[in-house]
User: Fold this.
Amino acid sequence: MVGAQFTYWRDYDRRQRRAMYLKWHLFMPAVTQRFGYFPGARLGWLEEVPRGVVRDWPRY
Assistant:
């Protein structure tokens, strides 16, 4: 089985939408651009995520 995160911000609870939007669509891409990948394990989120994956998530 494969589990995947879905980053469509409108699917999140209304109280969390802004935070989730900022996380997935602004913060993660900015950090990824800086490091060349998303260092999720260091930040306590997810795991190390390749640049292409982080780049694709905000599109959905």
Summary: DSSP finds three helices and two strands in the chain. The CA atoms of residues 12 and 20 lie 8 Å apart. Strands lie at 37-39, 48-50.
